[in-house]
Amino acid sequence: MQLEDRANLPWSHRLGLIARGVVTVLAGALVAVFGTFAHRMGAASNIPYGLAIAFLILILSTWCARARLDAVGLALHLIASSGTAWVIAGASTGDALTPIGFGGSVPYFSQHAGYIWLIGMILVQLGMLFMPASWFRIGTKPTPNGTTPRATSPSSSAGEAR
Q1: d(CA 123, CA 21)
Q2: Does this model's pTM top 0.70?
Q3: pLDDT, mean of residues 115-142
Q4: Is the Cβ–Cβ distance between 19 and 26 less than 8 Å?
């Protein structure tokens, strides 16, 4: 990718390799925290809109991680997000943020939202690993001969029109 093409990329894609890795790990951890807080919304009413929000945020963040660092970025994101979510689930005592494994007469999603979030976040990210790499590209589309089109200035295109 040429230097002028990098200026059109999002800020986190213009960083160096190590900094992009750090951004990816932080994004994964933040997604896990926000998703863990959000996944239970609506579960008591059997309308799991919190799970939908949590998975939407996870998918967007995972897409960015793969676009930023390809499969390595997705792996970093997967490790950071699932590790953070499982630590939160294991460390919860009393008022659990991710209640799992209880019985009684409670709505289905109240009982299973924690499992769906913890296992689903791993499955969603693994599924995105097998999607085509072209779905994760940011930038100009290559021409049929495999090169990226170069922008021409108005003065150079006027000279070519002769």
Answers
A1: 21
A2: yes
A3: 88
A4: no
